[in-house]
Amino acid sequence: MAEHFISDIESGVQGTDIRAAFLKCAADAAGVSKNVEKIHRAVARASVKTGAPIMAHSMPAVATGPRQIEIFEEEGVDLARVQIAHCGDSEDLDYIEGLLAKGVYVGLDRYGLEMFLPIGKRNAVAAELLRRGHAERLMISQDYCGTIDWYPPEMNEMAVSQGAVRNWSMTLVFEEVRAGVA
Q1: How far, in Å, CA of 129 to CA of 99, rounded?
Q2: Are 120 and 180 in contact (CB under 8 A)?
Q3: In this predicted model, what pLDDT tens digit does every residue of 15-65 receive, in sequence order?
Q4: Residues contacting 145, CB < 8 A, separation 6+
Q5: For the chain, is the Cβ count within 10 Å smaller at the N or the C terminus?
Q6: Do 106 and 99 form a contact (C-beta atoms < 8 A)?
Q7: Cα 13 to Cα 21: distance, rounded to the nearest angstrom
Q8: Using the 8-state DSSP alphabet, how is residue 31 labeled?
């Protein structure tokens, strides 16, 4: 797997001239299973070989971040080139600061997805992390572009009506969040 990832970065994706700019891996509700670890190690090896940054989807509810970082450390990844995404789904500042202490970036990146954590609570977490001096390692966004090719508009309408999402858009952070965190 690592060789495929390296080829995507150095030569191009699937025989094209389009080269990948970063590596992505994911751990979710099942945690870092054997197969998930295998993918993380392949991504880590490709990062070490190419210098490409890593964006790791995480699930704070089951604390995947520390294990993801541990794997990257074991493989020799420069942790300053890693983002552990979706940390803003949690109000657990100790958890988030534990990740930051390792030198990674954390994603406070699912603004508008109220089903994981309402905007007001996300703002409180972000503001406290800023007060504690972590501005340089926070990545704030709304994870919206993932809806472009697979998320039918009627699903969004249903999610809004049920309170699962609120004002979710490409501009949410600029229009609403920035003022609430500052």
Answers
A1: 12
A2: yes
A3: 899 999 999 999 999 999 999 999 999 999 999 999 999 999 999 999 999
A4: 170
A5: C
A6: yes
A7: 11
A8: B
Count CB neighbours of 24 within 10 A. 15
Pick from 123, 131, 79: nearest CA to 105: 79
Exposed (0-12), middle (13-18) or buried (19+): which is 28, by Cβ within 10 Å? middle
**Which tokens in the block code for residue 28?**
């979710």
Segment 60-98, tens digit of pLDDT = 999 999 999 999 999 999 999 999 999 999 999 999 999
Which of 175, 170, 97, 174 is closest to 138 using CA atoms?
97
Q: Which residues contact 120 (CB under 8 A, 6 or more apart)?
A: 180
Strands (E), 58-170: 82-84, 105-108, 138-140
